[in-house]
Amino acid sequence: MKKLFFFTFLLIAALFVHAEDAAESKETDLDKVSPQEFLQVVRDPLRTDAWGEITGRITYSNADSALRKGVIRVRVTFSKTSMHAQIVLNDKNVYAMEQKNPTDGKKATVTLDLPEKEEKPGLFDFGIEPEDLTFAFIYWDFIEEMPRSESRQRDCRVMKLADPTGKGGHVLVWFNTKYGFPLEARWFEKGALSPWRTLQLKGAKKHANGLWFVKEMRLEGADKKWKTQVKFDHAEINSVGD
Fold it and tell me: What is the pTM of this model?
């Protein structure tokens, strides 16, 4: 089993589909609460069991290699304490992922089962290095709240979170002030003033049943030499019993 972070990108819609409902149920104004309370709300997984299927396309471009393309299919079930997913790449490679979200204050963890015989290109050939990505960034340790800023013309609260592995790096995350939805993230190595990689989440769409779905994700190296883009064509996410 290997710990991995990238798959949280693919399933981040599942983690946040009820962010708005969580805020409303707690009568919380996310614009005014303390940063600790804010993070508690946006980290809160689904309050009810749910399941979903997501399909999309992934493209990796690198100045030093040929363009890579793939098709991704994700099947996921999640609850307040855990998430289980099956990720299928190009109808060949099957990855099994589990994320545990403890309710006792302990850190969330992500584990991944790799295919026994992974056919090229695998997911890591799309610019992802598993040894660099260990925990979902929203669950990293809180350091401080930075001055508020905008991301794509939306007001955001910016949180500085520390790498829980002790390597010394940190991430800055732009959260939508109203809903708590993450719009942008930048990772910094220890002592660095500039990020080594960035993430943008685009096209968040609210379904009729109140669930959210992210249509596009972009990862990019700070040197602009590589870029990974995920575009989701279809998403079906429902509460159990719907």
Answer: 0.75
